[in-house]
Here is the input.
Amino acid sequence: MGIYGNSGHAFKGQPGGQPLYYDLPRLVRSCCAVTAACMLISRAKFFEAGAFDEVNLAVAFQDVDLCLKLLENGYRNVYTPFALLYHHESVTKSEKIPNPVEDAYMKKRWAKYIADDPYYNPNLGRRTEDFRIALD
Here is the structure.
């Protein structure tokens, strides 16, 4: 959370199998959100959290919103390196830039996680997805 002022993908575009940032891509770990493209969740928890918000988030961020609702309900979102997946982000969508209305909704609704992701080191940058040290 907080990448690009909203949310981003950890290690997007980085080569697989490389020892990046403390080998984080190879560790099972908790995180604020995962992409729904490779999400596994029980039906009961999905509906308990309110499912996808198709009203305020018709195009993007539904998965992040759901994960944050789960977090608020006391559940953890866990990333595992033991699933090898290829995710071609938004390849079938014509809209590649986040809708400004949806972006604003996320920034208002989830401001506390965007400002302070409990799973992201505050000394790291928020303008890239590669876990670089913030130099500004």
User: Anything to note?
Assistant: The radius of gyration is 15 Å. Residues 3-7+33-115 form one domain.
